[in-house]
Amino acid sequence: MNETPSEHPVTLRLQAEFGDAIVETHAHRGDHTAVVQPEKYLEVVRFLRNDPECSFDFLVDLTAVDRLRLKLRPRFEVVLHFYSSRSNSRYRLKVRPADDAAPEVDSIVDVYPAANWPEREVWDMFGVRFGGHPNLRRILLYEEFQGHPLRKDYPVNKRQPLVEERPVPQDRPSTFFYT
After folding, report:
1. Are 66 and 152 in contact (CB under 8 A)?
2. What is the mean pLDDT of each run of 10 residues along the chain (179 residues)?
3. Count H helices, E strands: the chain?
4. C-alpha separations of 90 from 11, 34, 84, 85 in Å
């Protein structure tokens, strides 16, 4: 498939359905991408999953990019990779939270339950909040950790507070695997 971004069938569907909410499209080495306005992000994600012509039934990955050193605004991008088992195709969606100081987009856990831990990881590492997430808390670092270490302005030499070792309760199953 060597279509330009504007000729890709999913891109055409998104542009027809959402118009100006699709602010940019591009393709690189066969991977097609659409950038969506934050206000329409959740609606576009639902469309990509539910529309019969798109049918992206698998969320492959959800991550973020800090574009600070590129001097681009908005500073952060949340990047999602989808796969359609029906058409054996992939598609990338990006959303750029408008507020650089407190970036936030809607959670897609209700649409793709597998987004639960990746959204928590993005919150933990980049500080991008996901509104409506059922359990947005740190997943890789301890709660007392200060800052978000994958931000480009995170000080490499920053000292973190030391915490006492915490005992694991033996009288109940671990909630770590169930939340």
Report:
1. yes
2. 70 96 92 96 98 97 97 97 96 97 97 97 98 95 93 92 79 57
3. 3, 7
4. 12, 12, 6, 9
Residue ranges of the domains in the chain? 5-162
> Strand 129-131 vs strand 104-106: parallel, antiparallel, or unpaired?
parallel
Q: Which two tokens stand for residue 147?
A: 């800052």
CA–CA distances in Å: residue 83 to residues 18, 58, 88, 143, 173: 20, 5, 7, 33, 34
Q: Which pLDDT belongs to residue 152?
A: 96
5-162 belongs to which CATH class?
A: alpha beta
- Encoded tokens for 47: 């469309």
Angle between helices 41-50 and 9-18 (to 10 degrees): 130
- Judge contact between 12 and 34, C-beta under 8 A: no
Q: Are 34 and 94 in contact (CB under 8 A)?
A: yes
pTM, rounded to two decimals: 0.88
Neighbours of 151 (CB within 10 A): 17
Place of tokens 């973190």: 160
H/E run at residue 166: none
Q: If we measure between CA atoms, which residue out of 38, 29, 31 comes closest to residue 8? A: 31
